[in-house]
Amino acid sequence: MLDINLLRNNFNETAEKVRSRGKKYEQLDSFNNLDKSWREISTKIQNINANTNKISKEIGLLIAKGDKEGAEQLKQSVKQSKQELEELNAKKEKLEIELNDILYSIPNIPDKTVPIGADENENKEIKRFSSPTNFDFQPKPHWELAESLGLIDFERGVKVCGSRYILYKGLGAKLIRALQWYTLDMNIKAGFQELLPPVVVKRESLIGTGQLPKFEEDLYKLNSGDYLSPTGEVQLTNYFRDEILDGSKLPYHFTTDTCCFRSEAGSAGKDTRGVIRQHQFYKTEMVKITKQENSFDELEHMTSQAEKILESLNLSHRRIVLCTGDMGFSSSKTYDIEVWLPSYNSFKEISSCSNCLDFQARNLKLRYKDKDGQTKYCHTLNGSGLAIDRLWAAVVENYQQADGSILIPEPLRKYFDGEKYIK
Fold this sequence. Notes:
Elements: H1 4-9, H2 11-19, H3 31-65, H4 68-105, E1 124-129, H5 142-148, H6 154-161, H7 170-189, E2 193-194, E3 200-201, H8 203-209, E4 220-221, E5 227-228, H9 232-237, E6 244-246, E7 252-261, E8 280-290, H10 295-312, E9 317-321, E10 333-341, E11 346-355, H11 359-364, E12 367-369, E13 375-377, E14 379-387, H12 388-398, E15 406-407, E16 421-422
Parallel strand pairs: 2-7, 6-12
Antiparallel strand pairs: 1-9, 3-5, 4-5, 7-8, 8-14, 9-10, 10-11, 11-14, 12-13, 15-16
């Protein structure tokens, strides 16, 4: 949630920055009138309360003097004031709901370093690692390799669970597990603390990180009213919700690997083959909770950590900075990392690292005390380290051999008892 004072004190500039994301956000147009009404009613309530307190003291003095009639007249005045307060508080509450509806529907303000653009076509490439894999034979897509080597049972996955669900098996399942362990091991070695949370999350947790109320259709809701988590970011970022942290202990670096669930609403016809776009997928997540002055340095470190994992596996990839029109709802600045997939003959997103500033922390009431004793909102960051199913596809495709086998990357062989190939 944006700081309401940004709109209240500098509406035009703030609205312009929000709209640089490429949408009109018409709900902003009603903010000023609603906020003006809210402030007027708040002032009336304060004045009535102050007057009521004054009259209450006068009633006590009249009673002490024995002037019951005068005291009774003032009591009637207090009674009328209380009735008026009830009406005003009801109006104020209604206005607060309307103002919050606006604030919850408005995305974060892009950082000044973010390029202005309408969509993914205006993202900017920052750097590239290695050249795409060069084969001396015709490479196969990962879904064909998976079937020929018995790594995935696509048909029974659909039979048991439905479309956009897959069933890894044998060495295919082992490779998923190896990639989960390896990414976690790399993050832990880099100073992240591992957490293993449940995948069922409360509504307020999703509101806290910005998935609700705007993206309800992308989520799986349970009969209990809880949800299946769409990303480990939700659990890790909510870890300190409603707490005031000791600033001297910041930053906190957390990592986890969880099952994630998304309905993939609006993705009909996209990436229907293979493992790229599933309803259930695995992801190793990184979350940082930092002081305000350190968050952009932490974003660089987080993005570099995701890149180091790809570099250690010698997978060609690139970093891009997302333009204003392609960023996530809660983000102020986002780097995407894209890995080379021969089946697409292009780069495909495998990590997204974002600095949300205090946008999520306001929802979460996540604060810290600085060295001067001042209470401030934390800054929160999140990043994939990495999307495991897509990493699986990248390893399978880029390490395939002419005989149809897959060379196991050297860093992963310890999870395969030293074996060099998947055959």
